[in-house]
Amino acid sequence: MAAAAAAKIAEVRETTRVERIGAHSHIRGLGLDESLEARHVSQGMVGQVAARRAVGIVLQMVRDGRIAGRAVLLAGQPGTGKTALATALAAALGHDTPFTSMAGSEIYSLEMSKTEALTQAIRKSIGVRIKEESEIIEGEVVEVQIERPATGVGAKVGKLILKTTDMETVYDLGGKMIDSILKEKVQSGDVITIDKATGKITRLGRSFARARDYDATGQQTRFVQCPEGELQKRKEVVHTVTLHEIDVINSRTHGFLALFSGDTGEIKPEVREQINGKVAEWREEGKAEIIPGVLFIDEVHMLDIECFSFLNRALENEMSPIVIMATNRGITKIRGTTYKSPHGIPLDLLDRTIIVPTQPYEEKELREILSIRCEEEDCMMSDNALTVLTRISKETSLRYGMQLIMTSMLIARKRKAHEVDVEDIKRAYQLFFDEGRSVQFLKEYQQEFMFNEMEDREEMEMETN
Amino acid sequence: MTDWLSQLKKAKKSCIVDGKLKKVHFDFGDGREMVEEYNLDTNVVTRRAWRCNKELKGEDKWDVEIGDPEPVYNSDDMPLIRENSNQPIVSRRVTRMNLEWRIRNLPYSLETYSVTADQDSGCLVVRTTNKKYFKKLAIPDLTRLHLLPQQENVTFSHKFNTLIITYKKPKALLELEKSLLEEVEKVQPKHQDMDCKPS
């Protein structure tokens, strides 16, 4: 009894798990109309009309899929929506087009070289759509039996009886399968298909034979015929894998030797060449289709001169994706050199990119964004408070303004109010410093901090070598 | 001379002799491999297995066409879903004159079953009147020769929970097997001394 209750609780927890709210979780797309003209407020995007239109055209280019190896640079001050634009592009592309997002610093690792990391990122952004035969089981559920051990621990045991109009079979279920059957709430009378390799369950509907089981059924209940013939069928399915996934599958050292091979995660160039050849062959035979995707490199000024020259070369390959880079730097040193260059990117690479600038937001747009964020974070805010918060964001930064939403909401909740008022914003503003006030504070009290005895050496500078 | 026979002749062959069994390995060069096991007393294939290496996923498992499937020792990883062990299971055998299927774990009496030769799909179709079992049995030996199954060659019987379906080999298949056997006899095993001493 207790075990059953515990299981019940676990189940409830599984279904009510909330999604966490990230900095860009309110973005659902680029917010463009059919003629690629940007709507002022749509799909979580506000303002930045010119940049969104430009990204919309890039989107069109990716969808056409004919142009390889173009680079786009999103340049603008901090907090002007560069990452938001990239997130929106990813959302607009849909899940079938590969979109790889990485930060410039991600490529520095002890496991693999910089160029290897970049190559992997590039190959992650190229998809191959392949037709493959897979085995599926299709039938009407006669019975589901799932038994939990009496002690409450240990593996669950499951049986599933399926039938068609011609036959009936009992299946044993593995642990993962039991979980997904519970999650899908499969019950007798449903007509389902199960992909044997991946275990994916698809509910086709309810069997006509069971149409009279309940007096009331939901409107969305679909009734289907019980399938005919054999339960197990072979069906041709289309799925998309990335080039990197194919690389990994083919480069893995087999068996126990893998333990000694000192796998660094690097993939041999021979393997890649072989796969490129194979994919080209399939393409000619019409077995596969190449889907070029998007590689997004945030904080691109963190790449060094070697990476930039590697990118120059990699972009010329016809198998390369559209590369979108974002930076918030002005004229600064190129990492790895003493030369200065716009955006910290060498001129020859800049020459190959199209640059999309982002502008700082207007006050009206800030207000719009803040109210979208309030909605996203489930926060009620009075008009006056929103005006104050907009002013704060204008004078400090949009990010700081967004931080104050949650904090002031918690303050408001403390006084048992369900709406955030100006007072709460003020309190949060006093409690949490923004960057400007923090700098001012440090300047005033510099003498009292640690290690102050040492004289200022040369001027502080970002270490780039 | 059929297409299939020429493929077999072209394939790279190697063999070993293990007691009364001769195992021949055919490599067709396009990723397909086949292994046949001949009983040297009767010159009948006791096992035949295929492996089609998928281009994407490296080496595949062996797919047993004739003979018992590879035994699975209690492996830890339970697959996502599999048939219960007392569900019907099909195995194939070849005798000198016949092709045979045995479907074990079928408890129903003989009148329940019907076996028909389906011309459209080139399969034998097993049906039960109680709607508990249905199976399309492919006949790769005939398909490779582009032959269709004939109803008059099919007989079946039921014994010890097992349905035994027998299909009389057509003349073309007998001739092919004869010439294949000649081909196989040409393949000489490499020397049988062990290279290393098993401890």
From TrEMBL, chain A:
<dbReference type="InterPro" id="IPR027238">
    <property type="entry name" value="RuvB-like"/>
</dbReference>
<keyword id="KW-0547">Nucleotide-binding</keyword>
<protein>
    <recommendedName>
        <fullName>RuvB-like helicase</fullName>
        <ecNumber>3.6.4.12</ecNumber>
    </recommendedName>
</protein>
<dbReference type="GO" id="GO:0009968">
    <property type="term" value="P:negative regulation of signal transduction"/>
</dbReference>
<dbReference type="Pfam" id="PF17856">
    <property type="entry name" value="TIP49_C"/>
</dbReference>
<dbReference type="GO" id="GO:0045893">
    <property type="term" value="P:positive regulation of DNA-templated transcription"/>
</dbReference>
<keyword id="KW-0067">ATP-binding</keyword>
<dbReference type="GO" id="GO:0016787">
    <property type="term" value="F:hydrolase activity"/>
</dbReference>
<comment type="function">
    <text>Proposed core component of the chromatin remodeling Ino80 complex which is involved in transcriptional regulation, DNA replication and probably DNA repair.</text>
</comment>
<keyword id="KW-0539">Nucleus</keyword>
<keyword id="KW-0227">DNA damage</keyword>
<dbReference type="InterPro" id="IPR003593">
    <property type="entry name" value="AAA+_ATPase"/>
</dbReference>
<feature type="domain" description="AAA+ ATPase">
    <location>
        <begin position="68"/>
        <end position="360"/>
    </location>
</feature>
<keyword id="KW-0804">Transcription</keyword>
<dbReference type="GO" id="GO:0005524">
    <property type="term" value="F:ATP binding"/>
</dbReference>
<keyword id="KW-0234">DNA repair</keyword>
<dbReference type="GO" id="GO:0005634">
    <property type="term" value="C:nucleus"/>
</dbReference>
<dbReference type="Pfam" id="PF06068">
    <property type="entry name" value="TIP49"/>
</dbReference>
<dbReference type="GO" id="GO:0060828">
    <property type="term" value="P:regulation of canonical Wnt signaling pathway"/>
</dbReference>
<comment type="similarity">
    <text>Belongs to the RuvB family.</text>
</comment>
<dbReference type="GO" id="GO:0000123">
    <property type="term" value="C:histone acetyltransferase complex"/>
</dbReference>
<dbReference type="GO" id="GO:0140861">
    <property type="term" value="P:DNA repair-dependent chromatin remodeling"/>
</dbReference>
Automatic annotation (TrEMBL), chain B:
<protein>
    <recommendedName>
        <fullName>Protein DPCD</fullName>
    </recommendedName>
</protein>
<dbReference type="InterPro" id="IPR026224">
    <property type="entry name" value="DPCD"/>
</dbReference>
<comment type="similarity">
    <text>Belongs to the DPCD family.</text>
</comment>
<dbReference type="Pfam" id="PF14913">
    <property type="entry name" value="DPCD"/>
</dbReference>
